[in-house]
Amino acid sequence: MIGKTVSHYTITGELGRGGMGVVYRAHDDRLDRDVALKFLPPNLTADSVAKERFIREARAASSLDHQNICTIFDVGESDDGQTYIVMAYYEGQTLKSRIDEGQQSAEAAVNVVVQIADGLAAAHRKGIVHRDVKPGNIIVTPEGVAKILDFGLAKLSGTKVELTAQDSTLGTAAYMSPEQARGDEIGSGTDVWSLGVILYELLTGKRPFAAEYEQALLYGILNENPAPLSDLQPDVPEDLVAIVERALTKDPDQRYANAEEFAADLRAGSIAIASAVGIPVQRSASTRKSISPIVAGGSAVVILALVALVFWVVQQGDSGASEVEKSVIAVMPFTVQGDEELKYLETGMVDLLSRKLDGAASLRGVDPNALLGRLGDNVRGIRDPGEAQTLATGFNAGQFILGSVTKIGSAIQLNASLYDTDGTLQTEAETTAENESQLMSSIDRLAQLV
């Protein structure tokens, strides 16, 4: 297949293969970008009814627009009748590879799992269940952003799933929920279970259910309890142990109802969430040689710069207004221009800045999940102060922040504006990093301002 052109995609290399198909790296000759092409096994689209069902489900999955979900661009069929999915291509490593490198710290584990939960929550709100959440289906980019893969193979909520030979590998079965193993009707709780298995494995370095044979593995999932997490890792906080135990409750009615509830408890727990858009990346020595620390952490540095900038803006605000009005602040989705790879900052900054501002100098940030939920599924950066004013007022906020990130050539321009909810612009601030290598000095300048 290497070197072959399918439609307007030229295949340049193989990325991986498994029971659900072969994935190739390809170049989109029309839009001049790299993509991933996944060719599905013939049995998945063996007849017209099966193919129609697959296309319908892939169409539903492609509607998911979230920073932690791999984007699906297209579904097509090659000249020889092979069905394929066109997905975004991401640099990075699978979560499975990270697990293979060794046990993760509680902070690193929570920070990656909360991102996965956020992505799954967006799907659950649309009634879409992934049903195959496992470390091999999660990519972690060099910036530490988790991306959920294979949503094109997801099932709509309420679908009854049969365990087929295609599913029945130990690697996949280890993350199956009890109801999935029985072939019962599934819902969003199935993804919660799988994510609980992943969190357990990240924290302990071991899967909660393991066996040499599939039937023994499924028996354990259905009838046995995993070794207590606190016995394997006594240093894990009690609240995190309780979250894992609830996620791994065999009765789906006693589990978290969806990933949004799971994520909310993780954020309310004792482990600090580094950010909504990135986690610390553990790299091998060979990886460190090939990736500049400044470049690899470029997006994180931009985020830190914006945090410093927003604190400066808030501190410069009009102190004459009442504390009640000033104490609640709403961060609007940032506009991002000039670099599609920075698009995740549109919603990422809402979460990051809201939580950073919450509790600082008696400020209280509007809950980011509530704010983004109010905007619905088609969230985009807000430019209009009038629109932001209406949204902020709905949360009884006395102030709101509009912000932007603009990539111009190699330079990155950062802007933030503080408004009262009566529409009065209090102040504006701006800083520019000439290129990624100067981002650290840009942070130093902002620190002096603060």
Comma- or semicolon-separated keywords:
450 residues, alpha+beta, Phosphorylase Kinase, domain 1, Transferase(Phosphotransferase), domain 1, Rossmann fold, 3 domains, six-stranded antiparallel β-sheet, six-stranded mixed β-sheet, 18 helices, 20% strand, globular, disordered C terminus
Question: Please, could you describe this protein's structure?
Answer:
With 450 residues, this protein is α+β, with helices and mostly antiparallel strands. 39% of the residues lie in helices and 20% in strands. The chain has 18 helices and 17 strands. The chain is globular. Mean pLDDT is 78; it is low at 156-170, 275-299, 317-324 and 439-450.
Quaternary arrangement of the chains shown?
single chain
Number of domain modules: 3
- Summarize the biggest pleated sheet: 6 strands, antiparallel
Dominant shape = globular
> For the record, what is the CATH homologous superfamily label of the largest domain?
Transferase(Phosphotransferase) domain 1
Unreliable stretches: 156-170, 275-299, 317-324, 439-450
What is the terminal-to-terminal distance?
56 Å
Average pLDDT: 78
Please give the count of helices.
18
The appropriate CATH architecture of the largest domain is Orthogonal Bundle
Please report the first level of CATH classification, the CATH class of the largest domain.
Mainly Alpha
Question: What's the alpha carbon Rg, rounded to whole Å?
Answer: 23 Å
Helix content: 25-40%
Question: What is the number of E strands?
Answer: 17
CATH topology of the largest domain: Transferase(Phosphotransferase), domain 1
Percent of residues in β-strands: 15-25%
Strand order of the largest sheet: 1-2-3-4-6-5
- Class derived from helix and strand content: alpha+beta
